[in-house]
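Sequence in, structure out.
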Amino acid sequence: MNYKIEIPSLKLDFKVPPSKSVVHRELIIGFLEAVKEGRKVPNEILESLETDNDDIRATRGCLKALYEAGQSDAVEVYMPCNESGSTLRFMISVGAAYLNYVGLAQKKKLVFLPKGRLIDRPLDQLITCLAARGVKVVVDKEKNEITVEGVLTPGCFVIQGNVSSQYISGIAMALILLPGYSVELRGDLESKGYFDLTLDILRSHNFGVPEFIEGPFQIALRQAQGPQEHNVPEGDWSSAAFLLCLGALVPDGQVVLHGLNKDSLQKDKIIISILEQLGFSFTWNGSSVELTGRPDIRKARELELNLDAADYPDIIPYIAIVAAACTKSTRIKNIERLHYKECDRVEATINALKSAGGSACEKDGSLYITGGYNASGELSVSTYGDHRMAMTACLVAAWTGLPVLIDNKECVNKSFPGLFSVIASAAKQSIN
């Protein structure tokens, strides 16, 4: 079924939903902290909330499956990771450590149940790392299952960092239950900011963690000092990036977003800097940011922009649409990882631009975008079932001022439930 998006205006005053990146980590660390201290794991960690997005539901579901693993004689512990790459990559190490800690590693195996393209996303380096410590990870694409079994042997987890920081983040959290173990990073670390976020949250729970050091290093964690009271997680900069881009693209769009951390370690905060390069301006008031100025588009279209997607791949589709609207030409390098997301986001982004008569291509690991569009009438943009691409379609509608048809609006529940209601209210236009 097709849905029509029209965004003729935008007046948005909105509290941004909690950061997925923060909530994943808070849930896992809170779970492991309770287990380590012999406390009952709170229901607020295990039970889903009505406001949860699909990825957070996946992490809660996996934690609940682990916690209930000892209540059944079944060998398999089914882990509903669904389409969440963070859940899968964190919970492989965390799950192995948990079974080891509670004495079930010889009796049980984890069976992860991925959906969509998740089973095709790379795990090789994590598999190699865990194999050296006695844990076998098998990816069975025919059954669409990933099994994890084996007893951990003491020592150091050695992990390559050039594919995903989620591998080492998962191991770092697992170390809560593994006294005497350590982790050593080899090579450069992809998306370093997300690992910094993991370490920052571990410190907030009173775990001793050294500062990140470039190149090989080790971390050791001390025992937590009792349960901590934690503030509501900061707002999600991925969601904020989309909403700020939306406001930037709608003529005279007004956007005020609340609940954000100006000094956040979330790398998607870069959107402020990128939009400022394009001539937009913002005003901060505590944890609120307002779009307060926009460029002369005639002058903006003379700009040539060069960006590096390595640390903020999730918002590249949004940036691509804004770049097409505001620059003469843009090059975005290090886009290879976008091929392995919920869809091939390089291809999907190029197709979204072309749907509006824009021009874009991929060459030598970079995305090249030529500014401007040439379209009229009603446009059609495929979401490929990917939440980011559904949001990108909204940006195409804002950019061109034309109605845009999409094939799936429910996919935004993966990261931003209720998004289309928010847009419809702010735009005074329904999503049909």
